[in-house]
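ok, trying the design again with the full structure, not the truncated one.
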């Protein structure tokens, strides 16, 4: 997906910018970048993160940066930040989201004889598209409104100007942006967890479509928030760091409630509950406590070098990552029946390998419990589950096999109370060779978050959508 960070300080900002951006590293694995506005203008650096980590890549560069305002980004898409010269003045830009209509916007720009200078995997860089829309207007505020009007999908972004920073949340608030403060400093961040060790206190979550301007002297709202919100539910289920809050709702507390809701409805015999590290752990603790059974760790994660298994685009690489990053403990597995909690099943790569390993190590029974409903619809609004084909999703594979086409009765399969849904779950259970398999209901997931359903995007589970 990606994350953005921005800081305005009365003193040098480079340390806060460096560490704040690094705290967003769990949101992406491909590229990182920083840009600082200093006495000599804008200084920018971009590095690949595919072979090493943000902190390792950027630490040798810190002496090159000097200034009291800057932006940083962790990106799974294009190279960022980008620096532009326009009639509005020089500015730098970082973005996160997904421009679903990027081809149409590019075609329109070409018709107006606009030339693009950078590309992302052979396509126009999405960040440059956003800069084009901003620069075509008479002010930054008008440019921000133009982005919100014309971009389909989502785009949350931070603009670094010579006078300050604009933090801009996407029109429907699908991705978060949080304003923080400490004495003499103001920051924007995709995650509140980036504030804690840097001494910042969260001031507010920007609302859908809201824009706030910060400089070393203070902050002010420039564009008011809209009424409609569709924040991505998967932020709590999987993406979010456990200590982060979105809309005032803590990620780990949600996972505990989500697992507890499953545990309250389950009675399968098991020696203990366990979670697939890392995001499955909170769900499993909630489940175990609700059931009154022990929580144990039969699988531990080797954290230093392995990325998330759904991110690499090559299936062979995904399978390798899924196998190598988790280490089983035979002493806790052999002869045991367990309930294994995971946040989701996207393609089934990791789950299939985990089940095989557990049985090979002597597990008697593996009862799988998944903290969200079956993923059936590819994400259209942010860069989550960016499958090249909907048939990469395990739910779609099941529907294709059961129906003869991948969309047959699709909304029945999304309904947990429909017999078609039970058929799909049974198909996945058999394919994964599990003793039993249950998915969280959408109703209980929404209840565990605690926001009204109309404020949440649940498209990947039920196909619902609103607005852009």
């Amino acid at each position: 997906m990606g994350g953005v960070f921005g800081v305005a300080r009365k003193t040098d900002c480079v340390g806060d910018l460096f560490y704040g951006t690094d705290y967003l590293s769990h949101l992406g694995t491909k590229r990182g970048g920083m840009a600082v506005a200093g006495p000599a203008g804008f200084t920018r650096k971009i590095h690949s993160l595919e072979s090493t980590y943000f902190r390792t890549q950027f630490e040798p560069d810190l002496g090159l940066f000097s200034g009291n305002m800057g932006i940083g980004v962790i990106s799974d898409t294009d190279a960022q930040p980008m620096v532009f010269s326009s009639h509005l003045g020089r500015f730098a830009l970082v973005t996160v989201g997904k421009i679903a209509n990027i081809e149409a916007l590019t075609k329109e720009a070409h018709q107006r004889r606009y030339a693009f200078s950078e590309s992302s995997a052979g396509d126009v860089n999405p960040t440059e598209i956003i800069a084009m829309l901003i620069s075509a207007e008479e002010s930054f505020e008008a440019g921000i409104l133009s982005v919100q009007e014309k971009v389909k999908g989502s785009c949350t972004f931070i603009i670094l100007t010579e006078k300050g920073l604009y933090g801009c949340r996407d029109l429907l608030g699908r991705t978060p942006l949080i304003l923080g403060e400490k004495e003499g400093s103001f920051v924007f961040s995709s995650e509140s967890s980036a504030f804690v060790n840097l001494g910042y206190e969260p001031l507010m979550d920007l609302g859908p479509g809201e824009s706030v301007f910060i400089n070393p002297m203070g902050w002010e709202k420039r564009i008011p928030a809209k009424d409609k919100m569709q924040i991505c539910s998967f932020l709590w289920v999987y993406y979010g760091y456990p200590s982060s809050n979105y809309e005032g709702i803590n990620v780990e507390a949600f996972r505990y409630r989500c697992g507890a809701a499953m545990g309250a409805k389950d009675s399968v015999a098991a020696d203990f509950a366990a979670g697939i590290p890392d995001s499955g752990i909170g769900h499993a603790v909630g489940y175990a406590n609700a059931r009154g059974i022990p929580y144990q760790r039969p699988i531990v994660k080797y954290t230093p070098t392995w990325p998330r298994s759904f991110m690499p685009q090559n299936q062979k690489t995904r399978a390798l990552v899924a196998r190598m990053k988790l280490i089983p403990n035979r002493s806790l597995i052999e002869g045991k029946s367990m309930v294994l909690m995971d946040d989701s099943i996207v393609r089934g790569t990791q789950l299939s390998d985990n089940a095989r390993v557990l049985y090979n190590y002597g597990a008697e029974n593996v009862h799988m419990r998944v903290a969200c409903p079956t993923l059936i619809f590819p994400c259209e609004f942010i860069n989550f589950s960016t499958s090249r084909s909907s048939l990469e999703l395990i739910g779609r594979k099941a529907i294709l096999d059961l129906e003869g086409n991948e969309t047959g009765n699709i909304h029945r399969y999304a309904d947990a109370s429909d017999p078609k849904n039970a058929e799909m779950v049974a198909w996945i259970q058999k394919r994964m060779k599990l003793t039993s398999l249950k998915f969280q209901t959408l109703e209980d997931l929404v209840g565990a978050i605690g926001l009204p359903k109309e404020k949440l995007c649940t498209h990947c589970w039920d196909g619902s959508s609103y607005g852009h």
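Keeping the full-length input from now on. The chain is about 30% helix and 25% strand.
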